[in-house]
Amino acid sequence: MLKAHANAGDGDGAAALFQEMGRYALEPNRQTFGKLMEASAKKGRVREAEGWFSELANGAASGPRSVQYAIMVDACAKAGDVDRASLWLKKMSSAQLTPDVSCYTAVINSCAAAGNPLLAETWFEQMVAVQVAPNAISYNAVIDSFAKVGDAAGAAKWQNRMQEEGTRPTEMSYSPSISAAARTGDGPGAAARLEDMLSSGHQPNLVCFNSVISAFARTGNSQQAERWFDRLRESSLQPDEVTFTSLIDSCAKRGDSERAVWWLESMVAEGLFPAVESYTAVIDSCAKRRDARQAVRWLEEMICKSIKPDIMSYNCVINSCAKTGDAAQAARWLERMHAEMLVPDKVSFTAVIDSCVKEGNAELATTWFERMVGAGILPDMVAFTALISGFARKGNVVRAEQLMQKAAAANLVPDVVCYNALIDGYARRGDVPMAAD
Q1: CB–CB of 317/307 below 8 Å?
Q2: Nearest 5 degrees, angle CA 334-CA 339-CA 342?
Q3: pLDDT tens column, 137-170
Q4: pTM recorded for the entire structure
Q5: 164, 167, 168, 173: CA torsion to nearest 10
Q6: How far apart are CA 163 and CA 15, in angstroms?
Q7: Within its chain, how far is the Cα of 309 from the centroid?
Q8: Three-state secondary structure call for residue 193
Q9: Closest Cα to residue 351, out of 374, 380, 310, 308?
């Protein structure tokens, strides 16, 4: 009965059964307390498990053994308490008991979960120093600790060491290295690890393929992203929404809206449902081509399909309108964004300001600049530069210089575009000496 409660993680049930044992004058033994500890530990009630350990240590003649210490090490590790897990491991050694590989691995795993690969490495080396042979799970824990902090080189180093020391990598040895390389945008590195995984006879899961596709997509390398999509097709796996969205995004980064749309339509043909990220990537691809009409079309289609656009979706459309100098359209979409209970950000306002400047309407740009400030958003140098350029082009260099001074007062540093705009403004007025200064 007690074992059943322990397996189910039913600490309360186990405690009640323990109380019932007392009523019948049944003497608990080491196994009894071990099961009570297990039941509490499985629910993450570490302090309660420690209480049962203390009762065992203080009451039972036989006292705790390796199994009970291991339960405490594992409980603390799973609770993410690296220090306490380490403390229990040290207590175990102090009791002249030898921690096994699972105890050390539990501590290493807790270091990985805490994002501390150097400590994970230290515990691994301590394990080796006391001649406890590491297994694949131990190596994987260290690999994972480096991968979790995005240290692809560290993860690869430990995977190589694992092989050099005669431990055969598992699927879980490769996955973290692939993900870590992908997160840093290292497509070739992620692909090389995936190739190693395939050549070793392991079957990658969809996450591994998606990581590689995403890594190439982030740099706009559609050719390689699509190559790995084909490799994914050749396996027994099926692409998902993440796969297609990465491919759409790779096209968006190159401004290839036609290919981005093709991938979106392929996604739908597969019976998958594009999410906001997929549509936004298509809209972004249109914006990069300065195709405001198509950007608006895809945003409207998104809304029509009851997919709620996010701030990025609207900003892509506003930017596309701004790039073509359509201030009215840019402003309309910012207002629509606000009506949908989304808060326009610095990007939203700056794009509208820029669109007004492109239309030659510095006064309207000023109105939007003031609305931006009124909304509690501090303009950056991009917003100031747009407004300075707008007044300089109209020959109003006094206003342009006032804005430069205002930017400087806000600890912003005018760039070469600002100075060029002022030079151009003085030149338009025929004030060559000031332009030269």
Answers
A1: no
A2: 70
A3: 999 999 999 999 989 899 989 999 999 999 999 9
A4: 0.74
A5: -90
A6: 46
A7: 21
A8: helix
A9: 380
